[in-house]
Design brief:
The structure is a homodimer. By secondary structure, chain A is mainly α. Chain A is built from 10 helices and no strands. In chain A, helix 1 packs across helix 7. Chain A binds a DNA duplex (30 and 30 nucleotides) through helix 1 and helix 3. Chains A, B: This is Transcriptional regulator, TetR family.
Chain lengths: ~200, ~200
DNA sequence: CTAAAACTTTGCATGGTGTGCAATATTTGC
DNA sequence: GCAAATATTGCACACCATGCAAAGTTTTAG
């Protein structure tokens, strides 16, 4: 077997704790929920809760799905227009995110109302941004350019999730398309010499 | 007088607490410093510390200088190329930031090693981003475009501060120029139909 | 100038947070 | 099965953050 029973149980417990955290946070706001309540809801001791997550905000955020190696390689080695290759990369990643649909929706609410949680997410996003910057450095020479592209790209994901959370009838993919259009139009405007 | 004695003393105390926090954090890492130590170093009681800031991370971040109303108005009403008007806006803001030079340098270190602190800063930055988005909505029709521009702009500030913190011989203004160049080049690359 | 109103500082009590440690229980590889 | 590795748990402890009430300071107005 590829993963041991132990490993699977660990993942399982971590997920149960995250779900318990998000559900309680959804009902009472995370700040009004104690770690004790979360642990009880997840069926573990308080101490075990802290063996999995250092605090309830980290439990709410969990471990966001990472970029796929294959997608990163495809982006770094791509030969199409840069914008198209990045968009394809984003589409693939958004697809992965969509699989955790309910978790992400609940998380969105928590993060908008909890600074500590948003800081923890920001930490993950920063790592992703750096990862993407390194990857894009293989397509563009200047590191600042790569960093700017990576920043624009990850914040498009952020805006897409925001839109999707606030517009009930929008699919995650459609929200990404809107955010992406906005990014492309912004790029055009920034390169324009004179006003509209 | 424009501000009362009370108000001036409040600002003063807040600043003393922030400085005490940053100095202690600089020596021992913020997480190893207790609120009690910070309060003692700032010459106030622990309870008073909490009357000013809800936690030590907030004390480290303090209250970042806001955008100037005049600059926002100039940007919203500007008639030059959008890129030029935004750059001018940024230059003015960076000038304000430069006035708190030592504070920002110390803060940078704290924020890079403390998730809670970076979440609090992220909260301020989000407010600035939203402010800028509203402002740019007067120059561009599509809100997603404005949001994308605002995101790219504020993250250029972030990258400039990062560069300035890591390259000893770089002025804050020069760092902004580098980050800005990166953004412009990224914009060109995103609008290019085929590969370089 | 003074007295009441408004606000600030402080100590104390209290309950939640997060870690180290040691005992107990479970899984794994042999 | 059994020993090694890993997980879970209770307990103790230090720190964090808030409410409250008493004491002190600044402001305002007569």
């Amino acid at each position: 077997m590829t993963v041991s029973l132990r490993e699977r149980r660990r993942q399982q417990t971590a997920r149960e704790i995250q779900l318990a955290t998000l559900e309680l946070a959804h009902q009472h706001e995370l700040e009004n929920v104690t770690t004790e309540e979360i642990a009880a809801a997840a069926g573990v001791s308080t101490r075990t809760f802290f063996n999995y997550f250092t605090n309830k905000e980290a439990a709410a955020v969990g471990a966001p799905p990472p970029f796929r190696e294959e997608d990163k390689n495809a982006l770094a080695a791509g030969t199409g227009a840069l914008a198209d290759d990045i968009k394809q990369f984003l589409d693939r990643h958004i697809e992965d995110l969509g699989k955790d649909d309910p978790i992400i929706k609940m998380m969105g609410r928590v993060i908008r109302s909890n600074e500590k949680a948003s800081g923890i997410l920001e930490g993950f996003l920063k790592m992703e941004r750096d990862e993407l910057t390194d990857c894009l450095c293989k397509r563009v020479q200047n590191r600042q350019t790569a960093a700017s592209l990576a920043g624009a790209t990850t914040s498009a994901i952020g805006r897409a999730i925001y839109l999707w959370n606030h517009e009930p009838d929008l699919s995650l993919g459609a929200a990404l398309d809107m955010a992406w259009e906005g990014l492309l139009e912004a790029s055009v405007l920034l390169t324009l010499p004179a006003r509209d």
